Amino acid sequence: MKKILKKVLILGGTGDAVKLAAQLANIPQIEVISSLAGRTKKPSALVGQVRIGGFGGAEGLANYLKENAIDFLIDVTHPCAGQITNNGAIASQLAQIPHLMLVRTQWEKQSGDNWIEVETVEAAAQAIPESVKRVFITSGRQQLEPFWQRSQTYPDTWYLMRSIDPPDIELPNSKVLLDRGPFNLEQERELLGEYQIEAIVSKNSGGAATYAKIIAARELGIPIVMVQRPAMPEGEKVTSIEEAIAWLNSRLKAF
Ligand code: NAP
Predict the structure, then answer these.
(1) CA 124, 128, 133 angle in degrees (round to 5)?
(2) Looking at residue 142, what DSSP letter applies?
(3) pLDDT tens digits, residue range 114-162?
(4) What is the residue with the minimal CA distance to atom 8 of ligand 1?
(5) Does the first or last residue of the chain, that is N or C, have fewer Cβ atoms within 10 Å of its Cβ?
(6) What is the CATH number of the domain that holds 101?
(7) Both 242 and 206 in a single domain?
C-alpha cells in the first residue's frame, strides 16, 4: 500500500474538478478528496474520496481543513459560485495552508456576438427584450425565480430550460430539457432551430464544454443575456488543469 503523505481537498462541482481529481490520483503519495455541495442528484463519477454537503461557512471549512489535516486546497468550483470561493480563500488563511483557484478564462465577446451583459440572474430576467417570445435559459435550475416573476409580467413568453436535474420551480409556458454537457455545435444549432429560440440566458462560464451555444447564437444573430462573474478574492489563480498540477508539483517538491 502506498504511503500517503499529503492530502489535497478539491472544491468541486465542475467538469474540470472531475478531471483534476482523476489526474491528481496519478501523483504518488497524494490523497485526493473532492467536495461537492450536493446539488446534483447523480454527480459525475469521481476518482478518489468524495464528501458531500456544505461545511458551514468559511469557519466550518477551516475547521474541516484542520481536523482532516488537509495540506492543499484547490478550488475548482464554477466561476459563478462566489460564496464557496470566498469561503475557500478565508478558510485556507485560517488553516494556514496553500490555496489555489482554478478559474477558466471567461468568454470574450467576438464580432457578431450580440450580448446583453448583466451582473446577476435577476438582472438577466429583466434584461430579456420585451419583443422576445422564446427564451432558452441555461443559467441553472437553482435561480429560476426571476424568470417566474418575469412570466407574470409577460405571460406570452415561452421558456426552454436546460439542466442536469429537474428544477424545483415550474415556469408556466415552458419545457425542461434534462441534459449534461458538453454540448456540440451541431446539437446546439439544431436545438435553437427546433425550438425557434429568440434569446439565450447564460452565465459567463468560460471553457469549451458549453461554448457551442455561444457560436450557434452568433451564427443565427440571437442575443445572449450574459451574466457576468462575481469578483474573485485575492490569491493564487491558474486557468488550466495542467497549471494546477504544476502548481501542486512545485509545492510537493518543497517537502
Ligand atoms: P455558492 O453560492 O458559491 O455556495 C453556497 C454554499 O454552498 C457555500 O457557502 C457552501 O456551503 C456550499 N458549497 C458550494 N460549493 C461547495 C462545494 N464544492 N463543497 C461543499 N460545499 C459547497 O455555490 P453555488 O453557486 O450554489 O454552487 C454550488 C455547486 O454547484 C458548486 O460546487 C459549483 O461548482 C457548482 N456549480 C455552480 C454553478 C453556478 O452557476 N453557480 C454552475 C455549475 C456548477 P457552506 O457555507 O455551508 O460551506
Answers:
(1) 140
(2) G
(3) 999 999 999 999 999 999 999 999 999 999 999 999 999 999 999 999 9
(4) 84
(5) N
(6) 3.40.50.720
(7) no
